[in-house]
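Morning, I've got a small favour to ask if you have a moment. The fold is given in discrete form, as structure tokens running alongside the sequence. I'd be grateful if you could look everything over and explain what you see. No rush at all, and the record is pasted right below.
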Amino acid sequence: MIDQNVVKNLVEEWLVDKDYFLVDVMVNRDDKITVEIDHADGVYINDCVELSKFIEERLDRDKEDYELEVGSAGLGQPFKVSQQYLNHVGEQVEVLGSDGKKVRGTLKSVDGRDFVVTANEKVKVEGKKRPVAMDVDHQYNMDNVKYTKYLISFK
């Protein structure tokens, strides 16, 4: 079986001096290798091809046969690394907290593994009969949410 760390090290080597970052490397029991990369401005197919060739030139198919798939992390997919959070500051996201509550709002800030999402919610205000729409900050830790993902808007 192909060692996941070997593939990860090859990807890290290719990433040197590039604005791309590694999102994930997976190797299943059948030696299907899946590499996900990302970039603040999106991933170009030519760069995926270049990375694929780079990996193939360094792995020996005579020792172990494998299937290789290189691509982007994908829009609308849950974030896997902190750089994805940083790239989407100021954009609409959906968070499913560990408590099972979904919050949709603007990713306001990221500090280490902590992040803040501002959502417009109806809040009961003292002295008012009806709830008032207000911006409410929700604080999270990346390790304590079920997922966070970018919301695609077609407006």
User: Anything to note?
Assistant: The chain has a mean pLDDT of 93. The beta strands are 21-27, 32-38, 67-72, 92-97, 102-111, 114-123, 132-141, 145-150.
